[in-house]
Write a structure and sequence with these properties.
Blueprint lengths: L1 H32 L12 H26 L6 H36 L12
């Protein structure tokens, strides 16, 4: 009895993971095709948005492939390695680059508002 409940739960998690993988592919593909109107989590220059989209497409493909392999009774192998060494660094690196880009733009806007001068430094308290 307990074995069947566990098997049903495992299959439900596998189906959810496949759905999440396909959602990642869809979200990433939107960012790759329309980099000027990216999804909300990622904003920045076009190359950052496209890198994020490519990372998400790869993440979704590899996540779906790994889940389907596990559902068929196989062992996790290459898809898990690809997520770890390819898709993960693309997504994390592009999010970091987008954060730095937004910070740079805010700093530039603040400098332009001050008339091109840098903000005077405050004495230490």
């Amino acid at each position: 009895m307990l074995g069947t409940v566990t098997e049903v739960f495992d299959r439900a998690v596998d189906v959810l993971t496949v759905a999440l993988g396909l959602g990642c592919v869809w979200l990433g593909w939107r960012a790759v095709l329309r980099p000027r109107r990216p999804p909300e989590p990622i904003q920045g220059p076009v190359w950052i948005v496209r890198t994020w989209g490519l990372g998400y497409v790869l993440l979704g493909i590899f996540l779906t492939a790994e889940s389907l392999t596990l559902m068929a009774g196989g062992e996790p192998g290459r898809p898990a390695d690809a997520i770890r060494w390819v898709a993960g660094p693309l997504v994390v690196g592009s999010v970091l680059a987008a954060f730095l880009s937004r910070r740079w733009e805010r700093r530039r806007a603040r400098a332009m508002k001050l008339g091109g001068r840098r903000e005077p430094s405050r004495p230490p308290e």
